[in-house]
Amino acid sequence: MSATYLKERGVKKVHVLGPSAICKELDAVGIPYETRKVDFFNVKTCCFLLKSIYFPLLIFFQVDPLPEPWGNESIGQILSEMDPDVDCVLVAFDVNVSYVKIVRAANYLEREGSLFFATDGDAVFPVSGGRTLPGTGPILSAVATTAGREATVLGKPSEAVFRAVTKRFPDVRPERTVVIGDR
Questions:
Q1: For the chain, which residues make up each domain, given as ranges?
Q2: What is the pLDDT of residues 35-45, one digit of tens each?
């Protein structure tokens, strides 16, 4: 439903922090997007942990390396690669979130007229065994704090997403509708 709402708002192109499911949703309504699937820092960290803790004999190849050394020149390179057509940032649950993704999102949000949305603001993502993982909320907070802006949250129980549902399904009557969340 997030993609339907963005389509109704006339979004031209979206910068996505989130999973491929969001990208499929955008594809379905014909909205182009950009996303960084894998960032080197995350791959490097995961490989180190996997190799040192679980698989000492495993060999990894570096994917999508960032410019070295990290500084003004590399930041300039990252910002020069930004797409001029992006007019919206959508933050969702992203297990591959990185500093670079937050930098790019915040810089897109500096553009005049840019839109800022999130699928949810959940602080945690509960998993089995009583463990808890960070949810979309911490990622959203990082982008919002860096950009100095607040996002419109499109997930349940967002009024915006409910309007999109009723537009897509005109027979839905709000007075006879219950929204059920996952918590």
A1: 2-37+84-176
A2: 875 544 445 55
Give me 152's structure tokens. Answer: 């419109």
Interatomic CA distance for residues 96 and 114, integer angstroms: 24
What's the pLDDT score for residue 64?
A: 42
For residue range 84-131, list pLDDT tens digits in order.
Answer: 999 999 999 988 888 888 989 999 999 999 999 999 999 988 778 888
DSSP string spanning the chain? -HHHHHHHTT---EEEES-HHHHHHHHHHT--EE--S--HHHHHHHHHHIIIII-TT------SPPPSS-SHHHHHHHHHT--TT--EEEE---TT--HHHHHHHHHHTTSTT-EEEES---SEEE-GGG-EEE-HHHHHHHHHHHHT--PEE-STT-HHHHHHHHHHSTT--GGG-------
> pLDDT higher for 96 or 145?
145
Query: In CATH, which of 3.40.50.11240, 3.40.50.1000, 3.40.50.300, 3.30.420.140 is domain 2-37+84-176?
Result: 3.40.50.1000
